[in-house]
Amino acid sequence: MKTLNILAFAAAVILFTIGCAKKDTPQGDESGSESWKIGMSQCNLGEPWRVQMNADIKAAADEAAKIEVVFKDAQNDTLKQQAQMEEFISAGVDLIIISPKEAAPLTPVVSQACNQGIPVIVLDRRILGDNYTCFIGADNRKIGKAAGEWIVNKLDGQGNIVELKGLMTSTPGQDRHAGFREGINGSEINVIFEADMKWLEPNARKEMESALARFEDIDLVYAHNDPGAHGAYLAAKAAGRANEIMFVGIDGLPQEGQAYVKQGILSASFEYPTGGEEAIKTALKILNGKKVDKEITLDSRFFTPANIDKGGRELEAN
């Protein structure tokens, strides 16, 4: 009987050990036989740039194989994005990628995931604090400043500008605004009208209609994204004033901002890379236990009619 008890105890120890090892051992790697499950929480798919971000993530995941990405679209609803994050946590996904709609309301649920041992990559828009695994994005303040300096040079240091801002409760909107104001500081550029178009082209068109109704002399529109600049252009075109105004945007997608520059609709588009491919590469490193940088800053370019056929021009370091 004593021998049987010893064998039973040993078997229990072995089973317990196997159970812990399965939980703690990676389920797959870059060349492994099992797959990782990654949750991707996108704040909305109403912007072409965000559709491209998801496409870049999917392409990189397909190429890596062994990765299943579950995409969720919060449809510009912060509460919905919080709920989707909680679903990922409850489902026990291996890693979460989030591009948050807003910083403050989504910070707690990102912390919740991290505190439960789920790595979180924050993509494009920041949250508050540093309780996340890695942030990936370009330098929005640098891009905004570069746009401001380019505009000052283009207008010989003076002129009337309309600024159509992105969602100002999001960090890209705040940084693109702050950088732009820094870029035009000291010039005689006057921002005569500004409005929050929340990244959406229909909102930008509506706000531009208001600006056109109030001001007869508008030299340039600076929009925080290319859809905003295009919406402003459509409003000016409908009013018969498109030829007297220049339009500048940010994003620089080949099929959008770059195409608008080639068509003569935009005078300049500043690239903001989606970071989708970088997110998957970074996710693989994290899941395989490798150390990654807390902050990964992506390079950016800008496109004008003069350089578009040469692939644009890289933004210089600050």
UniProtKB/TrEMBL annotation:
Protein name stated in the entry: D-ribose-binding periplasmic protein
PROSITE patterns documented for this protein: PROKAR_LIPOPROTEIN
Protein keywords: Signal
Molecular function as annotated in GO: carbohydrate binding
GO terms under cellular component: cell envelope
Taxonomy, superkingdom: Bacteria
Record bears the keyword ATP-binding: no
Organism of provenance: Sedimentisphaera cyanobacteriorum
Domain Periplasmic binding protein: 38-291
Compartment annotation: Cell envelope
Family annotation (PANTHER family): D-ALLOSE-BINDING PERIPLASMIC PROTEIN-RELATED
Main location: other
Recorded family membership: Belongs to the bacterial solute-binding protein 2 family.
SUPFAM superfamilies xrefs: Periplasmic binding protein-like I
